[in-house]
Amino acid sequence: MPGFLSVAAASLSVMTACGGAEEYKPSIPVPVIPPTPVTPVNDDDSLSFPSKPNIVLILADDLGYSDIGCYGSEIETPNLDALAATGIRFRTFHNMARSSPTRACLMTGLYPHMVGQGALNTVEGGGPNYQGYPNEKNNFIPECLKGAGYFSFITGKWHLNQAHCKPLNRGFDHSFFFGGGWYWSDDVANQDGGGLFLEDKGINKMNNKDLPQQGVWYTSDQFVSMGLRWAQEAIDKGKPFFWYMPFNAVHFPIQAHAETIQKYRGRYTEGYDVIRARRFAKQKQMGLFEDGVTLPPPNPKNPKTWNKMNASEKDIADHRMAIYAACVEDMDTNIGRIVRFLEEKGIRDNTLIIFLSDNGGNAESGYPGRWKGDNPGLQGSDVWLGAAWADVANTPYLLYKHHGHQGGCCTPLILNWPDGIDASLRGSIDKENYGHLIDFMPTLLELTGGSYPSVHAGNAVPPMEGVSLTAALKGRKVVRQNPIIVEHEGNKMLRDGDWKIVQEYEGYDKTDAQNPWQLYNLRNDPTEVHDLAASNPAKVQQMVTTYRQWADHIGVNYSITSFSMMEAWYYPVRDWVK
Asked: Which residues partner with 414 through β-bridges?
């Protein structure tokens, strides 16, 4: 395709699987596809774009697939809905199922294991691919945009171990961030995330003259306020800008403005199953899914269905979801502030806004979720969504954050760019193309004229793993020559075209016979309710072989057996969906 950037993985030194029941030696090498130039000349007018758009990359945290209005939610998200109505929604876009691995992958265009972020934190015995922070064998997006004249800044959740990896050292001109885990500046009960950093240096959160808002402030408000200040600086300097805006919302402990929480009280008294079914019906009505698509049953791990809960339990469940909904709405309100600023400055039309989530909805507290504190949803409280509502958040998908099923690694994705998206596509849903975080680097480099150096800090840098998504902005098919892979804590998936295999983590002491791979055709069965492995063993074996080649290529360590966080919510899908 003329003008279409397709940079795929070249074969690197392969890491041999070490130990465990799945030890093997690859029988054939990973395909080698030579890299193409990162700034191709568009000789096809249908793929030409305006030069040097501003880029606002918005990342939500722990947001489920159906948690915004334009993906089926009852939560009021008018600003995101408006972006979808004048942009493109992808039905299927893949993340790495967990926060830090997603962020490392997003920033570098490489799989997180290649970057040193194969898990959330350092894994003892995991080796350099699991050191718990990005290494120097990669380029970050702002570093690649620097030569194209871009002014880059981050405001929000960094979560890439600021002790070892600092934004200003990776191409950003300004930084205002934290590791994550709190919402209110005066909340002394929740200090997770290592404090607050301005220009990579720790600062006091309260009454700081360098911050746009003083005293008691809420993270979604403050981070956007600082970003608007730096966007104005870029405008004053006459430079296009790259704004990385990773919200803390809706990571636990979920908190929001009191008035927004109150607005949602009483809206969830019908219970999990009713809200989930209503979201799925809305998804079908808006065209995200066809009439023949099946909604999987809710997780049978839930010990109490709604009709078995007493009045107090139902009230707490309603209150919990009201807090969560308010957290989502408060994020959306601040996204609206960004859009209005761009409009007021006359730069809205040539600004590419990207919105997605770092992983699926969060069930980490199990059933029914955590509920602590005198003022739930406000300072000092410790409220987690819980697996019952996470089933709703991830409608219509199975499982959650951590997992290789779609509920763990499939995110909503909105692309909005008035000058760059073909007018006939505005408001459309792209169900033909699918993507992965690795695709952002080549996409942005093609649109900006940025470069991708082969050496960083004296280290050889692997070629980008993804492909450009620019064809999708013109209603064309994205040509993907390689499969995509997700591996997190032993949860595994590989997608190649319409076909996907998944294996759930139950410890590496089990063989494939004891923990069988599942096979799905996502074109016919996007919600993964029809496992075709038994009827198509040859396809399974072929894809498992491919998975293992790619797992070796990116540096998955098969010897790690220490992951065991899922007991609170996990129920094997093969027993869940018959």
From this structure: 89, 355
